[in-house]
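Ligand-bound model needed. zinc ion.
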Amino acid sequence: MWRRPRQIGRFAVTSLTDGCFALDGGAMFGTVPKTVWEPLTGSDAQNRIPLRINPLLLEVDGLRILVETGFHDGGDRSWQERFAVRREETLLGGLAELGIAPADIDLIVHTHLHFDHAGGNTQAGQRRFPKARHLVQRQELYDANHPHERSRASYLQEDLEPVERAGAFELLDGEAEILPGLRVVPLPGHTLGQQGVFLESEGQQLVYVADLLPTAAHAHLPYIMGYDLYPVTTLEVRRRWFADWLEQGALLALPHDPEVAFAQLELDPKGRYRLRREG
Ligand SMILES: [Zn+2]
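Prediction:
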């Protein structure tokens, strides 16, 4: 597929994909009843809704920056079937189409370390992006290394260990400027250490919203995933940032929408948030 980068000021931004998967619709919508979410997403015979993995490539000043590394590359057949994994398109394939090899990636920004976001860090026990520094919140790496019964299934140590062994994680404590125009901002709730990626350049704005807003169907404030460890924190963080993003007309990049990579918030006639597709 031919991918056209969009320009956000000085940054060339390309939406990539690392394939499709599916998760239980009830788990994806928390307290929202199926009669409400099902018309928005559809569902398969196992009650799952379609999702996609949408990492971003940012290019500026000769630097190549990945936001997220995609889905865990592995797992046995029953694990793959549980998530209906389909990898017709991959992150590496998309990069190759752009003439970019894994060794050309300078920097990786992790929103969080779940296997559907940081799963492409490694391949067969080796780092996949040998020259990249991996930026993550200190809290997130700590929690990934100290999972509890509720979080354990989301963190796969084989995605993280080779990066840790190489000393390639760079730990952040809260908001941080990565480069001029590129910063990370804590967006806790899904996990405590989740962060969003905020681009601001020459008056244009793009936010990679992480699992604060996984798909376009999740725009209404209380449509919060059952997977979130701190759902009320998610609600407060949404309330605070959605108001900003609406007012500023920020372009939002969605990590899991099966069709919509970029969107903008707007209000429906009842005053609820919804998303308008922007490519
Ligand atoms: Zn996710």
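The two ends are 15 Å apart (CA to CA).
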